[in-house]
């Protein structure tokens, strides 16, 4: 009998509920009777996080044997590749892939797709996916799962429907800057021959990169090429940023302004931020806290701050959620609020670290449209990090990290 493979559009496996857990232990629903009593394994972020936790406690992760450093220090792509190989070695009857390609670069995606194609000859695959382009070619049917039940079973061609316009494409402008940062030089970031290594491993080699006011950069590079490391030199407290030829807003890093002062001029968003905000702050308070560079809101906001935040709520299309608790919003809404929060002060530089990661096509398009609106309507320079060439993003410049034996070198690509 020919093995059947299924795709399930939507977010992560934990939201797919109990039936997925039942499926993994062999209690398949009627629609998937052929998997009854079979051995299933799960590839997901939660499973990977468990291995990372185990490794942090006991060391010697089974995922990366023969390496004398912790699993945590591997790049997100490297970790995912290791987990998949480990699962495949156990020869499951079926494999549930929960967004297997998120955070994997083009080359790794290609390699993974062809190994999954080989696996699919003998092993059934159930693919949870967010982006249509991720759908594996051998998947024949799509299952819609809502409220823990399968609500629809259809063919892939029935599923592939056209996608519409976003709300942000119709908006003409954004609220103005609440304060003007004075004396910001034309060159916001300047790196001259910057090299970084961890122990004896070279990560970045002779990086020359200049980011000017109102620039719109996309930063690309394969897994482990050092994108996060490069950003942490600018935004984070990476000790490697001291003692190299790196200028932020006109002063050499470490010599002039404190990390705190530097962060005031930078807006930062990464999807992992959504997990950091656990207090019961309202959406309005979240936006206002972006004017204060604080996580929560500890003092009563001024009328002007409230007005600015309300103007942003309108642009972000979430006016009706003003008083709602942030943690109760959908993933897309949370990201929109946090991008608004990063942008509300009109920072000189806005860093967006994989803002579309793990979103479906429609949601990714919303985020892209919001970023385009910000790029068009502000003087803020943007660094957008993503493995994907996002359709319609149109950055003005691309900085690519290219791995070599002596660390990644940087190259400016034509757009
Ligand atoms: N503290 C550390 N000790 C040793 N190696 C490290 C440490 N932090 C990062 N690395 C290594 O540095 C390299 C660059 O990692 P980085 O996370 O910057 O890459 P990336 O381009 O952001 O990757 P990805 O796209 O997978 O997120 C990787 O090989 C990683 O394993």
TrEMBL record:
PROSITE patterns given in the database record: ABC_TRANSPORTER_2
Please give the InterPro entries that the UniProt record associates with this protein: AAA+_ATPase, ABC_transporter-like_ATP-bd, ECF_ABC_transporter_ATP-bd, P-loop_NTPase
| One Pfam family cited in the UniProt record for this chain | ABC_tran
- Keywords noted in UniProt: ATP-binding, Nucleotide-binding, Transport
Which molecular function GO terms apply here?
Answer: ATP binding
Quote the SMART domains the UniProt record gives.
AAA
Whether ATP-binding counts among this entry's keywords is yes
Q: Where is the ABC transporter domain?
A: 189-415
Q: What is this protein called?
A: ATP-binding cassette domain-containing protein
